Amino acid sequence: MLEYVLAFLIIAGGAFTFIGSLGLARLRDFYSRLHGPTKATTLGVGCVLIASAVYFSQGDQPSLHEILITLFLFITAPVSAHLLAKAALHLKLTSVARRPESENLE
Amino acid sequence: MSLLQTGIDALLALGLVWLAWRALACPDLFRGIVLFIAFGLLMALAWVRLEAPDVALAEAAIGAGLTGALLLAALARLNRIAPAGTRADTREAWRNAPALLLVLAGAGLGLAVLSLLPEPAGLQAQVAAELGRSGVSNPVTAVLLNFRGYDTLLEVLVLLLALLAAWSLEAEPPRREAAPGPVLDLLLRLLLPVLVLAAAYLLWAGAHAPGGAFQAGAVLGAAGVLALLAGWRLQPHLTGLPLRLAIVIGPGGFLLVAWALLLTGRPLLEYPPALAGALILLIETLATLSIAATLAVLFQGSRPAAEPPA
Amino acid sequence: MIDTALTIAFTLVGLAVALSLWRLLRGPDAPDRILALDTLYVNTIALLVLFGIQIDSNIYFEAALLIALMGFVGTVALCKYLLRGDIIE
Q1: Which residues pair with B303 in a beta bridge?
Q2: Largest Cα–Cα distance in chain B?
Q3: What's the pLDDT tens digit per position in B243-290?
């Protein structure tokens, strides 16, 4: 049973990682590309890390290393994305989105 | 599985050569730095594939991490001194000279590797035989801190020399107090304890697993870099003597231990086996502090002003 | 069972590395390259953890942790440079 859970987590992790990078490579402008890695890839590596934590906890003691990396990635990924978006806005990168209707949005 | 591994190895090898070439050849220095960091990252993976976890760890800490930050600091300073566009064009001939040197050095290395015995005996047997008396159980740490401790002593001193060189170039212009960004500031309050914990863990783990002073120092130094990026500054009363003490305590402590051992009539850095573990931990702890302080201060660039900015 | 899953995951993450490298080299803008580098960090961590499961050893855990830490510092420094033209204002 555990083996199925592990296999599922590992494949899900690989799939999300791949989808995140696919988004990075394929989407049309920077602001869309920001979505792929910061969400899907983080989720993907999260799945892989949880799989690893479960796998190495099968012995006598639980493996907490992976939880530390997962926590760290989940705390820092939004901050990286925030800074990247700020940098892109600062450099006035072109977006494929329509301009907002209201001028009050800055 | 083996076909897949060949594929991943091929991707790594091709990616490394391509990144190295692009990093060297692209005219935009910022892009070059980004590519250089990516190169360090793939290099760490390559060391993992070559089953050298200690080297992979060092490459991840220094190649993929702090060297990039230091290069970026250098680029920022270059822009201050000579904005892009005002710099004199490096002549083609001079750009090719380092390339020629690198090709020659590469060819020499290749010849050296090819002239090795097919199955070199190495020193693993000797290290394994003496490991019990070294005070640690990780053979890499045993070699770096005990059997060839003078190498590491010199490495720590080289770092100090680099800092002296950077400090002697230019004194710090008085800087205005930067307003820390709210996001980074809050994050840093959460993250700083984690980073200190991770550094302590790496330092402690070095005795029996990959890790040690350089990796721990790099993590602690990265914490310092992050703090500088978030706009945190050392209190002016700490930038004088306390900072200098932190910088020299590692090499200084190392030298003191070496000296004390010489005075007891032992050869250079040959620890008594009973004390070896404790001495290595002491040296590594002090070295971690100094490496961290040196790296963070190098990132800031010039000597911090002792008096508060006007 | 786990071996099959690992093979599939290795293939997917290997492809992800290739895609990130492609974006890294193509750009077109500086933030694109930083984003690609950030993704490359995360992909590398996934590869390291998968290697660890495959060889049944957590000897690469420290490397994965360090890459996570250093990746974040690198991304912040690069973004700050773009935002200010200088990293320490």
Answers
A1: B171
A2: 66
A3: 888 888 888 888 888 888 888 877 777 777 777 778 888 888 888 888
Do C2 and A3 lie within an 8 Å CB cutoff? yes
Q: Is the dihedral of CA A17, A22, A24, A28 positive or negative?
A: negative
Residue B180's pLDDT is: 59
DSSP structural state of residue B308:
P
DSSP assignment of B101-152, as one string? HHHHHHHHHHHHHHTS-SS---SHHHHHHHGGGSS-S-HHHHIIIIITHHHH
pLDDT digits (tens, 9 = 90+) for A72-88: 888 888 888 888 888 88
In 3D space, the residue among C55, C50, C62, C61 whose CA is nearest the CA of residue C17 turns out to be C50
pTM of the model: 0.85
Query: The domain that contains C64 carries what CATH number?
Result: 1.10.287
Residue range(s) defining the domain that contains residue B285: 139-310
Q: Is B286 within 8 Å of B249 (Cβ atoms)?
A: yes
Whether A48 has its CB under 8 Å from any CB of chain C: the answer is yes
Cis peptide before C28 (omega within 30 of 0): yes
* First-last CA distance in chain B: 64
At C33, give phi and psi (nearest 5°): -70, -40
Q: Which distant-in-sequence residues (6+ apart) come within 8 Å of C10 by Cβ?
A: A14, B1, B4, B5, B8, C47, C50
Tens digits of pLDDT across chain C (89 residues):
888 888 888 889 999 999 999 998 887 888 899 999 999 999 999 999 998 888 888 788 888 888 888 888 889 888 888 887 655 54
CA distance A73 to C41: 11
* Number of domains observed in the structure of chain B: 1
Size of interface A-B (CB pairs under 8 A): 14
Residue B148 structure tokens: 């060839």
Q: Which residues pair with B171 in a beta bridge?
A: B303
Residue in C closest to A94 by C-alpha: C29
Q: How many helices (DSSP H) and strands (DSSP E) are in chain A?
A: 5, 0
Question: To probe the interface with C, which of A27, A58, A83 has the most C CB atoms within 10 Å?
Answer: A83
Interface of B with C in 12-41 (CB under 8 A): 15, 18-19, 22, 30-31, 33-35, 37-38, 41
Cα pseudo-dihedral A68, B195, B176, B235, rounded to 10: 140
Quote the number of domains for chain C: 1
Residues of B in contact with C70 (CB under 8 A): 60-61, 64-66, 218, 222
